[in-house]
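#structure-requests
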Amino acid sequence: MNEQDKNHVVLRLPSTLSVFSGGKSQLLLNADTFEQLLEALARQYPLVWEQICDAPGQVRKKVNIYVSNQLITTPDDLNMQLKPGQELIVLPSGLNG
């Protein structure tokens, strides 16, 4: 990781979503909170954002996102602080929606 990359968080995608990111399974995004991560994702990788979030910008029920083994589940999690270099993992939840 170079110096610039150290200021970013890493969003790990399942192979089913990497098709929407130009084949990338790891996205480096500059964000201090989970909400900022979603905003950066919408700007830099809008097709991935559309798969993860619904029109109002909420994480879809069919998607689970983990930050340090903690599942993002409530609107309060938007304020979750992220640390440079921290990894977030996106997994399908198995639910429709």
